[in-house]
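As a next step, we paired sequence with structure tokens, yielding the entry below.
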Amino acid sequence: MENDKKAAARAALTKYIEENNCRKTTERFALLDTIYDIEGLFTMEELAERMAVQNFHVSRATLYNSLNLFVKLCLVVRHRFQAETKYEACCDTSNHCYQTCTVCGKVVELDVPEVAKALESVRLKRFRKEYYSVYFYGVCQTCQTRSKRKKNNLKGTKKSNIDKNE
């Protein structure tokens, strides 16, 4: 199944390159293959690191330009989260929901059937929807716990300072 998606993405890129008389570079196809081997979201830096691990060094300009082309061809989806921009291989037009922590920036993909059901029933005027991405912003459990501990430590420090002064 994954190889089918990668093959479809390669075919779409090849078709675009041929129709637009672009150069058929090994870097573009190596990047596309690497992207389709990554499960979930990734940053540009993570992609560069993966390419380096494979001993395939790609300049930042090539990386940036290739990702922009892949986004244009709908082979990759760009997500602009509060803390950073992440990408995701997306040969099919599937729907996604994410929760993003506004403190640490952690992003988790969610399966929320209620949201999917509600959004699929939405009728839009003079517009054919293809897919959607929904982002929930808030504070993750880890950051909430850290915040509570910090508050409790501050309260304890203030209380001990008051006790010392008395």
Notes: The mean pLDDT is 85. The radius of gyration is 22 Å.
